[in-house]
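Run log // design_07
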């Protein structure tokens, strides 16, 4: 996934503990499992939230092409995030997706 500078800045600010009323950090590439995140197609829509209830914000990325949803579990902390390998969002069902195109 190739994230725009604005999206990268927003994600970097949130993962560094900054909120909307604070200045954004310069953009950075977000890595998962030691490699830059790349979900192959078009624009991405990232969201940080605690998806597994462990108190640490994980990364959900919506992929423009096909509307696939990717989850990257935060194996670090909220102050020093480190994302594991991406997995397609399934929740025990076929791949979750959102309208795309």
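design_07 sequence
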């Amino acid at each position: 996934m190739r994230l725009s500078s604005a999206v990268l800045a927003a994600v970097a600010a949130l993962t560094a503990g900054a909120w909307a009323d604070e200045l954004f950090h310069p953009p950075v590439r977000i890595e998962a499992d030691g490699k830059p995140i790349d979900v192959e197609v078009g624009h991405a829509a990232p969201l940080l939230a605690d998806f597994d209830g462990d108190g640490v914000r994980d990364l959900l990325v919506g992929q423009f092409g096909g509307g696939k949803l990717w989850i990257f579990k935060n194996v670090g902390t909220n102050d020093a995030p480190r994302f594991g390998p991406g997995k397609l969002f399934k929740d025990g069902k076929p791949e979750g997706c959102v309208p795309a195109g």
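The longest helix spans residues 5-15.
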